[in-house]
Q: What sequence folds into this?
């Protein structure tokens, strides 16, 4: 397995029965019937042999999520090992662990940019059955990839063994596997699952091994859970960064100058058209306002909805520059009306069932601030499921040209509207409006007009995504949509050549850092107002969760107060009624005593409720204290991440 030819690792892309014959063992449990083995036995042997045969002794190696690592225990006398694990039990891992001699333990997760892990110092970063447990969110994926890249030396390897499940309805893997395959310089590109599962040599965890080792943990039968196997992804960090013109690595865009002064943040105008989309509208609004972009102009144009849309808009109206709810002439008419009210230097719209990724607006502002030649841009296409969770990240980045837009076929990809932003100057050159005679594909017509005046730049970043849902126009009316696109294309192809600007080849995709850098000439830190505000942007997801907790506490407190007031009213009413009854009926002494007891009981219940209110108030104060502490922890955590990224950028400059 020595990698004299790096392409040879493709033979080790997934677990095969024949691999065992070539593995050197290092524990007694590795000897015997392979159908009795845990899947981790295969993964341990693969990584152990890879290290022994390809990594020079004395090298620095990091295991991600290693827990009580068998690899580290076997090889710690020959290599400098570090173990990165939060030790919180994810994926049935250990919850706590004693410090061990011979290696370093850092209690954290990959993607958190822990300052204890030195930049550019590891010859190998690997994981075994760990990364399939990370949340399937693009922001996590991006941070994991950036953190691994930060830690690797130039020329260093990154090897990850994923647990993959072969089920009756297909093969399941954490989306991170596909993300890594599409974003990292992998040495063994992902093999189609149909080819993997058709291989008679495929090694899967057997039923007997599953029943003995995993079923007590999963509480599912082998048929219900599926057949686990290992998929192994390897890449090597380039020894020299490739930023040459036309390279596939693209062009890196820094946000240094954007952070020099808050006055330099360009205003971004976003219009959201909506009609009876209350099911998704709040999530859309939160994805815009949750950006915490300091110069945002957000406009919501509702077409006179009869559902709960107006109540949702009113909930956020103090953060919205303008909104209205009245009948209009359709989606594109509403967008035009919104843009007429807008004043931003950068423009876009976001439909009410779609969402932005965290940090999208800062990335867009960074590109357009640094690159005067970019007049419009689009990001890496993504999609959300009906539940709002990330469902798709396109692996292929398209380099767009006017010719490509005009030559499209029905199955060709579209420019993703949710990820596309442009300068106001381009909007005005192209006529300053969407053509409302088109009801489904006016965005495509706008892109073609834009292409007469400027090239479309693709940015390798997650900006926005559309949502898969049953009432989606492009899905429900696909035939009409494609017919409208074809009509638009025929019209645009008749444009006189003298009215079209000529451009060189398609621009190289741009790569952009997801975190801002320090001001030139200043040392790294997070004391400045600008950096703290950017830090808050990067942690928007966590802050939103804390705000939700605070809202729940407030709602609970109000509910208890309302109940207390109701009890008071009932108590007073009961006393009044009893007095009237006693006066009218001249009740006997026994009946009066019973009524008095009832009054005492009601009084005691009231006292008990008051005590409960006091207890809830104390609990509220405690939770608020915990929230404030968590906010401080988040700020410190993101500050460490920011400092680490800034340190990388400064090193690159030097």
A:
């Amino acid at each position: 397995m020595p990698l004299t030819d790096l392409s040879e690792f493709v033979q080790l892309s997934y677990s095969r029965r024949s691999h065992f014959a070539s593995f050197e063992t290092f524990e007694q449990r590795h000897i015997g019937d392979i159908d009795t083995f845990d899947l981790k036995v295969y993964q341990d042997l693969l990584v152990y042999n890879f290290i022994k045969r390809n990594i020079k002794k004395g090298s620095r190696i990091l295991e991600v999520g290693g827990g009580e690592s068998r690899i580290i225990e076997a090889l710690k006398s020959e290599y400098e090992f570090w173990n990165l694990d939060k030790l919180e039990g994810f994926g049935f891992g250990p919850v706590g662990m004693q410090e061990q001699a011979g290696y370093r333990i850092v209690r954290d997760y990959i993607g958190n940019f822990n300052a204890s892990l030195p930049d550019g110092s590891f010859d190998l970063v690997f994981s075994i059955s760990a990364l399939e447990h990370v949340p399937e969110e693009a922001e996590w994926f991006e941070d994991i990839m950036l953190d691994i890249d930060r830690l690797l030396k130039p020329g260093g390897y990154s090897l990850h063994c994923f647990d993959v499940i072969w089920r009756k309805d297909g093969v399941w893997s954490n989306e991170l596997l596909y993300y890594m395959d599409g974003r990292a310089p992998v040495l063994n590109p992902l093999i189609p699952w149909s080819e993997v599962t058709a291989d008679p040599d495929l090694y899967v965890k057997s039923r007997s091994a599953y029943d003995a080792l995993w079923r007590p943990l999963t509480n599912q039968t082998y048929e219900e859970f599926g057949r686990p196997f290992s998929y192994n992804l390897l890449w090597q960090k380039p020894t020299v960064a490739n930023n040459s013109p036309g390279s596939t690595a693209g062009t890196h865009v820094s946000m240094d100058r954007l952070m020099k002064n808050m006055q330099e943040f360009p205003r971004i105008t976003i219009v959201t058209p909506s009609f009876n989309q209350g099911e998704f509208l709040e999530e859309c609004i939160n994805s815009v306002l949750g950006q915490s972009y300091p110069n945002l102009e957000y406009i919501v144009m509702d077409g006179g909805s009869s559902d709960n849309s107006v109540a949702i808009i009113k909930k956020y109206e103090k953060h919205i520059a303008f909104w209205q709810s009245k009948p209009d002439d359709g989606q594109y008419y509403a967008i035009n009306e919104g843009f007429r009210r807008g004043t931003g230097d950068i423009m876009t719209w976001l439909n009410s069932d779609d969402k932005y990724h965290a940090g999208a607006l800062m990335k867009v502002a960074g590109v357009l601030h640094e690159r005067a030649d970019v007049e419009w841009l689009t990001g890496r296409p993504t999609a959300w499921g009906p539940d709002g969770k990330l469902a798709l990240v396109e692996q292929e980045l398209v380099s767009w040209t006017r010719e490509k837009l005009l030559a499209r076929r029905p199955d060709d990809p579209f420019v993703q509207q949710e990820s596309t932003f442009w300068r106001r100057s381009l909007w005005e050159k192209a006529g300053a409006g969407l053509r409302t005679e088109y009801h489904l594909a006016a965005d495509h017509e706008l892109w073609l007009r834009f292409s007469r005046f400027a090239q479309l730049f693709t940015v390798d970043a997650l900006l926005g995504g559309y949502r898969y849902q049953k009432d989606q126009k492009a899905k429900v009316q696909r035939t009409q949509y494609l017919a409208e696109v074809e009509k638009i294309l025929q019209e645009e192809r008749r444009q006189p050549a003298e009215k079209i600007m000529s451009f060189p080849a398609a621009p190289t995709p741009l790569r952009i850092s997801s975190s801002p850098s320090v001001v030139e000439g200043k040392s790294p830190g997070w004391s400045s107002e600008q950096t703290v505000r950017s830090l808050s942007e990067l942690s928007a997801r966590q802050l939103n969760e804390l705000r939700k907790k605070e809202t729940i506490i407030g709602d609970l407190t109000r509910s208890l107060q309302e109940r207390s007031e109701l009890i008071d009213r009932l108590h007073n009413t009961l006393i009044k009624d009893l007095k009237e009854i006693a006066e009218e009926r001249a009740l006997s002494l026994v009946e009066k005593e019973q009524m008095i007891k009832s009054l005492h009981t009601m009084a005691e219940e009231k006292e008990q409720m008051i005590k409960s209110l006091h207890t809830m108030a104390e609990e509220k104060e405690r939770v608020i204290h915990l929230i404030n502490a968590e906010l401080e922890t988040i700020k410190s955590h993101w500050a460490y991440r920011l400092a680490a990224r800034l340190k990388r950028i400064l090193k690159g400059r030097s």
About this structure: Residues 241-250, 254-262, 513-547 have pLDDT under 50 and may be disordered. The first strand starts at residue 60 and ends at 64.
